[in-house]
Amino acid sequence: MADGVVYVDMDAFYVSCELLRHPELKGRPVAVSADPRGGQGRGVVLSASYEARRYGLRSALPVSQAWALCPEAAYLRPDFSFYEETSRQVMALLRERSSLARAFSIDEAAYPTGFEGRAQAEREGRAVQAEILERFLLPCSVGIAPNLTLAKMASDRAKPGGVVVVLLEEVPEFLAPLPVRSVPGVGPVTERALLARQVRTIRELTLLSPRELKTLLGSSNPDIVRMARGESTESPWPEEEGPRSVGSMSTFDMDTEDADALSRELRSLATRVAEEVKRRGLRFRTVTLRVRYEDFSQVQRSQTLPRPTDAFDALCRVGEGLLGELLRERRGSPAPLGPAPVLRVPRRIRTLSLTVQGLREVPAGERPLEGFLSGPPVAGEPPDHEA
Ligand SMILES: [Mg+2]
What we know:
Elements: E1 2-10, H1 13-21, E2 30-33, E3 45-48, H2 50-53, H3 63-69, E4 74-76, H4 80-97, E5 102-105, E6 108-115, H5 117-136, E7 140-145, H6 148-157, E8 163-165, H7 171-175, H8 188-196, H9 202-206, H10 210-217, H11 223-228, E9 246-256, H12 259-279, E10 282-293, E11 298-309, H13 312-331, E12 349-357, E13 360-361
Magnesium ion (MG) binds near residues 9, 10 and 13.
């Protein structure tokens, strides 16, 4: 019995969710995006149906360009709470198959498995795919491989609607022809550096010296080259780490640029985050504020503190500072005299999210005793939000 991982990646997830409510759009080019406003819209495409992809539509494409390529597509506004709810239901189904199933994003999840040969692995892949399709009418692609990284890469090759199985002995030949960009962690910058060195495929990566590799790949998946050489080193299923971040998000009933309303919402997010951090016995160092504007474009700002803290005041102060920065930026320099600019920069905010990273456990010696010293702070005690 071989150890492996089943990786499930939903196909064009936001669009597939919308087709549940708009079956009349099936087979047509469909995009979930900001309002295209007849080609004048700002913001981007978030998800495109495979029919729309034939016209060149894809996620992150400015919606004005999408409109120029395919004005006849159906452009739908996103409904994130519907997608999140659907995602939770699919996740619950995967947990029925394996209690170890884990979500990696709103539309990707995986679970460990054991299988005897290709036929059995393919049966497992087809079965989970069919179950998701029957219960939710949602299409997905499935990759099955000896570890998580490879299973994710296999699911990419299975798009759309396929099942790709990579057995341990097939790993080098599976990886060799893939473009370097398909290595998890290789983004456009690393890709450019690699292409400049004539390194286009994973096979060409394996020809580099360890030193060159380290310089070029940086923090991207270092195991991939060993796997491509047939020396598999990654364990099939990674141990669950503690949380990498704790965060909270809220969507305004009406988009707003009112500084007081934003600040009030920020404080309530900070309250929730600080409570969760304390409950888990953690401290944080980095605070990230993410803002989604009315046109669905997203901006984020982070600040790292000199030392870890779990103080609500510190979180609030940093969050307010980041929000102030973003608001000032959007207002820009004082408006010039004369007619107002034609293009209005979107300033009204739709969602606000506050996240803390760089989490560490509170050292044992500093943990408050349960039900004992946990009353209100003693007067004269040094404040613990100096971080
Ligand atoms: Mg997907």
